[in-house]
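*** Residues and shapes ***
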Amino acid sequence: MYSYARASSIIKKAKKQPKNFEIGELEEKETSLAMKLSEFPGIVQSAYKSMNPSLIANYSLQLSQIFNEFYHSCKVIGSEEKENFRLALIESFRQVMKNALWLLGIETLEEM
């Protein structure tokens, strides 16, 4: 929940919606976050087939850890050429985390 609230805070501080952007070369933490986000549909499918919601809980924990590493190593607001991409990446994180928490029956908080 903390990571979700942190991401919401970043989006709120940016005061703009991500617009068109070129991705360019990605840093390691950006790649890690994007790759982890792409795993979500498969995790949900596996959890459904095995009737094991702990797969979603474990994924959510791992995703939060990767997001926190990204947040600490990649400047978002004020990073001229990458700001729009990073805001879009954070918005994607928020959506996936919100869906994962909803599937676990946990309400999200926009701020803590």
